[in-house]
Amino acid sequence: MIYPANLNLAITAAARAMSATADSRRSNVNKIASGSKLETLRTDTAAVGVSLKFKSEGAVSGALQSNMSEALSYLGAQSDGLKQLGKYLDRMSELVTQMGDPTKTETDQSTYMGEFNQLREEILKVHGAQFNGLDLFYKQGDSKALKVQLSATNSSATMDLKQTDLSQQTGWIALLGFAAPYTGLEGISDTPANLVDPNALGGASFFEGMTQEVAQLMSANGSQQSQLKLALDHSRQTTLSMERAQGRIEDVDVATELTHLTRTNILMQSGSAMMTQANVAAQSVLKLYGL
Hints:
Strand content: under 5%
Number of strands: 4
Order of helices and strands: HHHEEEEHHHH
Radius of gyration: 40 Å
Helix content: 55-70%
Number of helices: 7
Structural class: mainly alpha
Shape: rod-shaped
CATH class of one domain: Mainly Alpha
Strand order of the largest sheet: 1-2
Distance between the termini: 19 Å
């Protein structure tokens, strides 16, 4: 048998096997260190594309959820304003009833009237309240359509936040004396000409009707809050599902990779031992030649 002294086929084969094992070991280490199965684009180009898509949709969904949270805060502030209006109307109704007491003196009547008109000014302040520069209640020049997008994938899924226009309601005009168009507190002043006679409004029954109107506005506000909360919960659940899907694509299985790393370490050690044996065989051939 002719043995080519200038070649060591065993060492060449062992070196090739060790190189492949080293590449596998390097990949295991990179995955464990980075926590991602997609440590390079060549790992799985399709999976990388899907992962990037999920990341983009997740970022958009996060922004939409922030917008919906702000819209909920807006509706909450509007709800607080409506609650205040209800309290003021209740007190006004009480004052009107007290002013109907024939035993009250003119001084008493004047005191009740002063508080009554002070409450009118407080109602106007509520009507002029804002949230981050946006009017809670519609006034001249406002855009009535405050749209909130509810879906990252469906641009037509929107909701209009309602801005109630009190200045267009007959009862509120009679109570507050809105100027046309209403732009501020000029509808109310301390001059007697602008003070309202509560009895001329219709007495306590007038305020009962106004309170019922506020209750309807609160009901509409609550309905919008419920719809927005449902949309927000759905968006959050969708985002969570995308994150789970992205995790299944990207996140490394540490137990599996550690098992593979242990295997490659064993192969590297056994490969080194085999290369040593191959060198020993080469040395034996050289001895036959007396070298």
